[in-house]
Amino acid sequence: MAAVAAAATVVDGCASSDSRAGTTTITNVSERPDPAAARRVVVVGAGLAGLTAAHDLRTAGWEVVVLEARDRVGGRVHTLYGQQDGVALTDGLHAEAGGESIDENHDRIQARLAAYGIATERRQADREAKGLARYKGATTSLAGFASAQGGAVGADYARVDVEVSKLAEQHALDPEHPEQADGAAQLDQQSMSAFLDGLALVPEARFLADEAYTSIYATELDRLSMLFVAQQAAVLAGVPDDASETMRIVGGNSRLPVAMAADLGDALTTGTVVTAIRHDADGVTVVAGDREVHAAHVVLAVPPPPLRSVAFDPPLPAALQAAISGLDLGPATKVITQYQTPFWRAAGQSGFSITDLTYRISWDSADSRPSDAGLLTTFTTADNGLALAALADVDRIASVQAQVEQVYVGGAVQRTGAAATMAWSNEPLTGGGYAAYAPGQLSAFWAPLRDGTGRIHLAGEHMEALAGYMESAVRSGERAAAGIGRP
What's the pTM value of the predicted model, to 2 decimals? Predict the structure, then answer.
C-alpha cells in the first residue's frame, strides 16, 4: 500500500520571511541594447527551476538577471515558520505549505543540497502500515481495509499500478518523448476515470484508486490524460515504493531556495512583475514596470497561468500559445493543525489517512524530526481542493478540523488553536499546485513547451518527464540552461 501515500506529497512549493531577497533594482539598461546584452540571460521566476537555471547559466559564463514577482523566493517550495509572516504555529515549529518530500532517486536536488551543505532528514518509513482509512462512515486501519474481502481490496488496488505500467510498455512510451509513443494521440484522449472503469475494481479498491490518483495528479480523474499517467509510470519504472517520499530538508525545504538566492546576490530582484517580452533573432527585451532589461535569451521559469498575463511581441507561435493557454495546475489545498502532542503516535498510528470526506489525505507534518508538539497536515486536491479554497482561511481550517475529528476521534481536545493553511489555486502567481495534463493535451503541448521558441526558453516541473516534484523543477532548470549553452 506504499503507493497510497505517494498520493500525499507531490506538491512542488515557496519560502518564508527568511527567503526575501534584497531590494536591488533591475539593471536599468538604455532604450537600445547595451554591449553587455549579448552575454546576458534574464530568468523570470525565482522558484527552484529559475534559481537552478540562473546558477547553471552563471557558471557557464553568462551574466544573469533574475526577476521574481513575489517578495520571496522559492515559488511552490514554501516552508511556514511559526511566528513568522503571520504564521500562527508556535515559534520553533515549521511545516511545508508546498513541496513536501524528496525521493531516493531525486539525485539532482540532492546534489544541490550537498553543494550548500544542507542536510536532509528521514521521514517515517511505515506511514501506510500505521495509517487509517475512512470510508462510508467507518474508520479502520489502512492495512485492515486493504485486507478486506479476503484481500481483494488490496489486490485490486495493486492491480491498477500493474495495468498502468503495462500500458506504458504496450505503447513503447519513452518518458522524454511521450508524444511519439505508439498510438499516443489515442491514449492521450482516454481519461484515467475511463481506464479505471475498464478494470472493474471492487468498490473499496476503486475508492482507494480514486482518492490516491486524484491526490497524486491534483485533478479529477475524468480530466486526467492516460498518456500522462503512463508517462509517469514509465519514468518511475524500477523505482521501489519504499524509495518514495523518504526525506525532507532539515530546518525546512525553503532553506535550499534561500541559499541559492543568497548566492545570486544582486543578480536577483524580488517584487518585480514582468509584463511584456519583445523578442527577435538578435535578442530579447524584458519589460518589468517602467524598466527594460535587454538580453540574449530569456528563461520563463513560471507556470502557465501567470504567463498568460505577459504580452509577447511578436506573439508566440500558435502551438506554444495554446499550451500556455490550455495547461492548468491542479488545485491543491493544505491545512496544518497544531496539537499539544502527536497523540496518534501514542496510539500506534502514523498520522497518515485516506478518506472519502472533503479532505483526501493527511500525514504527520513532523514525522522526519523529534517534536513534542503534534502537527498534522491535510492535503486536498481537485474539486474538493477548490471547494476548500473558496472558504475564508478560518472557515477552511474549521471545516477540515471537524472532518479530522471524525477520523481521529477525541483528537480535538489536543488542538492548541494554532493552525495554518495554503490554497494554491488562490495564488495568482501560481494558479494551483502542479500541472495536470487533461485528455488530448500532452501529445499537443509537450514538444512546444520543451522547445520554446527562438531565444525564449521555458522551465518548470510541468516540462519534465518526472513531473510534479521539487526534483522536477531542478531538472527543468538544468535542462533550460544546458539548452542555452555558453555565451
Answer: 0.93
